[in-house]
Amino acid sequence: MEEKRIIDLSLEIYHNNPGYFPYQLTEFSLEKIKPRDGYTSERVAFNTHTATHIDAPYHHITDGKSIDEMDLSLFCGPAIPIDLFGIAPHAEIGPNQLEKYDEKIRRGDIVMLCTGFGEKRGWNSEYCDNWPYLSVKGADWLAEKGVKGIVIDVMSLGGPRDGEALYQHEMLLGKEIWIGEEYRLPRELLEHERWMMYSFPLKLKGCSGAPVRAVAISE
Would you say the pTM of this structure is higher than 0.70? Predict the structure, then answer.
C-alpha cells in the first residue's frame, strides 16, 4: 500500500514578511528570554489576512459570517490542483484555463489555483504588484460548479489593480464560498489528481479572516 503523503501548504509568518501593502508589516519581538526570565516567549502583531489565510464573508459582506462563525466542515475535503504553472504576470485566470477541468471538478470540491507565483514570494514586483488572478468570468465559472472553497498562491484572488478584485470577493463570499490566499502550492501537487485538504483557520472571534496551517494529504 502506498504511504500517504502530507504536503505543507502554508507560508511562514515572520518579522516584516511580504504582505498586502495597505496593511502594516508583521512585527515579531521577544517578550521573555530564557537567560533573563527563565523561559522564552514572543509577541506577534499582524493583520488577520497575513501569509496563508482564509477570507470569511465578513471581509466583504457587512452582515456576513465572521471566521469563527463558519462551519469547520467547509475547511476540509477533496481538493483538486489546477495547473497554471507558467502563467504570465498579471494574467487573468478565466474559463479558457479552467474548462479542461470541467469533468474533474465536483460539487463541494476545494479548488487549488497553482500559478507558481508562491515560489516568487518576496519584496519584488512580480509577487507584490503583478500577480495573476481569477477573473470575473473565472469566478462565475467556479461558482456555477458548486465548489466550496478556492485557494491561490498569490496575495489576492483578485487582481492588484483597482477594479480587479471587488466583484470576485463579493460574489464568492456572498455565496459563502471561502477564499484562501497566499497558499503554498508546489508543483508536486500535480502528481495526484485529487488530494484531501485540511485548512483550519484560527478561531478569531468577530474577525474577517484568519491565518491557517493548511495541509494536503494524498488520497
Answer: yes
